[in-house]
Each structure stands twice: as C-alpha cells, then as structure tokens.
Amino acid sequence: MVTSIFFYLFATILILSALRVITAKNPVHAVLFLVLTFVTSSCLWLMLDVEFLALSLILVYVGAVMVLFLFVVMMLDIDTETIRSGFWKNFPLALLLGVVILTEMVIVLITKPIVITGSVAPVDTSVSNGVALGWLMYTQYSYPVELASMVLLLGLVVAVALTLRKTNKNGKYQNISQQVNTESKGRVKMVNMKPVIARSLTIDEGDSK
Amino acid sequence: MNSIAQTLQHLLGDTLGWALWKLLLVIAIVVPLTIFVAYVTFAERKILGYMHARLGANRVGPKGLLQPFADLLKFVFKELLTPTKTSTGIFYIAPLIILACALLVWAVIPFNATTVFANVNASLLFVVAISSLGIYGIILAGWSGNSKYSFLGGVRATAQMISYELAMGFALVGVLMVSGSLNLGEIVKAQSSGILGGSILSWNWIPLFPFFLVYIISGVAETNRAPFDVCEGESEIVAGFFVEYSGTSFALFMLAEYVNMITISTMAALMFLGGWLSPLPKSWGFVGNESFVWLLLKVCILLFGFIWYRATFPRYRYDQIMRLGWKVFLPITLIWIFVLGAWMVSPLSIWQ
Q: What is the ipTM for the molecules in this complex?
C-alpha cells in the first residue's frame, strides 16, 4: 500500500514537473523543473530496486550535466518577448509536428507490446545490480561499451579542439608552473651599495641648536 | 533498540510506528551532529586563536564554551533581509537545499560495524551523488540574490566543486577497487584483513597513499575552505555566494559548510584510516577493540587538519586552483588507478 502511494506521488510530481519544464516562463525555473524531473524518475528507479542506475542518473545528469545547463542559462540574457514574437507564425508547423508525435505515441500504446525473444543476457540475482551490470558490461557487452566510450572521447577531443585558443598570436598566456616554481633569487636582486651621507642633515641639527 | 520499535508499532500500527521510529533515529543522528558542528566552530576559533598567538573566544560561559550558542542566538534574532528583485522562492530554498544535501548523506554513513541508519549496497555512490546535489544550493543562492558579487561567487564555487569532484571520484574508484564493494561497512571490513593482518599497516592509507592525499586536498576544495576559498574571497567579491544572506539563512550556510567538513573527514576516516578499527593490537583489551570512539578520534584529527590548513596556507589564485584539480590531481589519480590495477593482478598483491 505504502509503495503504491509513493509510486503515485512520485509519478504525479514527475509529470507535473515535466509539464512545467515546457511551460515555465523563466528559463532558470525550467531547468530546475527538469532537475526535479530527473530526481523523481531516479526515485522511481530506486523503488524498482535498481539503486545503481538511479544513483548514476543523479550523479551524471543532475550532478554534472544539469549544473552546466544552469550555468549557460544563467549567463544568457534571454529576452522572452523576442522569443515569443514569432509564436503564432510558427504555430501551424509546431501543431502538425505535435499531432504526428502524439499519433505515433498513441499507436505504440494501443498496439500489442513487442516481446523481445532474442538473446537476453542472464542476470545473476544473487549479487547487487551494480555488480551484475558491471559483469555484463565488461564481459558480454564489452565491445559496445568500448565503442560508446570511443565516441564520447571523440566528442571530448573535438570540444577541446574547438575551444583551444592557442593559435591566437596576440593572446597572453600565463605559465603557471613557471609562476609556482619562482624563487626569491629570480625576483629580488641584492646589491652592495656604499651608504650616502646626507650633508643637509648636519646643517639642520646645527640650526635647531 | 528493537523493543522500542516493536512497542511503537504495537501502539500506532505497523506503518505509522515504523515511520515514527525512523524519525526518532533521524533526530538521534542530526541533533548530536549539530552539537558537534557547534563545537567544531568553537574549536576553530580557539585553534586559530592559539595559532595567531591570541586567546580566541573566552567570554561566554566557562572558558568560552557557550560561545557557539551565543553565535546561534545572534543569528536567529537578526532581521532576514531580502534584496530587491530577488527570486524570492529560490532565495529562501537555496540554503535549505545545501543543508538538506549535507544532512542526507548521514543516512548511509555507518558509525560502527552494526550501527547505520540505512545499510544500502551502493552507499558510497549515494554519498557522492547526494553531495553533488549540494552544488545546486550554492549556484542558486548566488544567482537568486540579484547581485554580481554573489553570482560570481556562486559560479566560482560551482566550477571548483565540479572540477574537484572528478579527482575525488577517481580516488574513490581506487578504494572500491581494493575493497570490491560500494558499501561503506564492507570497505572498513576489507581493511581489517589482508596480508598485513588487519593492523594499521593494512589500512588503505598506505597502499593508496596518493589517493588519500588527493582525497584530503580535494575535500578541502569541495567544502570551499581556505586555502581554496576563492568563492568567498573577501578582497575580490566581498563574501561570495552568501553575500546577500543574513540571519538564520546565513546560519544555515555555515551549518552546511561544517557538516560537509565533518562528512568529508568521516568518509576519509572510513575509507583510508580504517574507520572504527583500532590501531592498537587486539590483545590490549579495551583500547585494542574496534569502537565508535576510534572513528570519532580519527574524524577529529582530520578536522583539526582542516583548521590547521586555514591558519597556514595563503589563498590560492583561481586559475591555480583549476590547474591543480585538472592538470595535477586528475592525471595522478588516473595513473595510480592503472598502477593499482596492475599491482592487484600481480603476484605482489596484498589484497588476496
């Protein structure tokens, strides 16, 4: 009973917050509702006892990806008036696309579910699902995992290459290891000077007496 | 303990009694933790005082022992100021998010071999996931205050925390490689055995020494403490992301910061210093037994370190912090993971 109460609670929050993502006027609020959507879907996964996936969802999407999203949205100065100005002009096309997507979803829902009869990996239920996932990922599915990681690595390299600005000849760069390794010898020069005796000092003394 | 739970369930019905029992357990964890926080702030003022060759707080109560409560009362009776054009809802929710995430982690932290609020399989992952949620409180606090200073502080803190989370995560990968479990209790248990016979030498801090150092230093950066406290750099951005906060909501930030410090110290003690295991031989009787007191002692030593660094090191420059995280710690941990993997499969492995 308690489980179903929690399920419906989380499901309601999930759907409402997903709706608010596309209806919220302030983009920062929209991103926050998206975060709430992720957190509640992770709660639903936790109720299915898949704690590894649920926690990875929070760690990867909520903890890292959405924070960067929030950064970008906060930095942008979004004027909602200019964004909404072309709303009615683009509305017919958007409506058409929406109807197509909705029909597809309804068709999927009303047709008989597709039962996968192919080779489903046997899951050892005696270990925690993190361990089970790890075994499958690094034994049976190791090539797809490696392929996916290569694609991600490629994306990473491209992103670095796009933002690397070393080609700018006029740019000024700091060599931090050089800065960190400076010693007082390189900065302070000790010179040996003879003291200069100021003559005016003695004259002043004579005057005051 | 279980008899209290049974009595409650008998009186209030199964579900309600169970919920009330869990609520009592939560209070039994949070209240001592808050008092511990109060005395960590007091210890910080005293230790910093002695390190600066002055006395520190010594006026309120005997030897100044009631000082944290005087501070708290002052916070509570200050006016709550809301700057104009803030996003009011987010402005008040942000400190609560930080504090909630800081306290939520304690649901899975074990206090000794049997005492833990929720003994989940993936408790290490839970701690990492929940502490990464705390970032939202900081960035929202910085943004909602409608101030350039607080926004810059929030952005600085967030970028720094995300960067150091990576190095910290890799340090944790090393720990779970040698213990083969994501459960904190299992991780401590794994340190009590091994080729070195469960003595102080078999704790993770010696074979995983680079990870231990990286974890401690990243922990200081994660909690935004000196020398990595550029997000509240007084000379540049006044007081960072909480510059617009006053009264109780400011106190919540302070509380969360110290709870996070205690969490980081506890995690380091559990993962690298053997948790509740005793460094003395078992034959010594009481002091040789594993107990909560050993965990507390290790946590206090690590907390003393936090205060010590603050008194010792000058503040880092921001780009140097980023360099340390990305170009020093990340490669060190990555390389040591490979070294560790090779060590574990080699005949020299000490974890068989």
A: 0.79
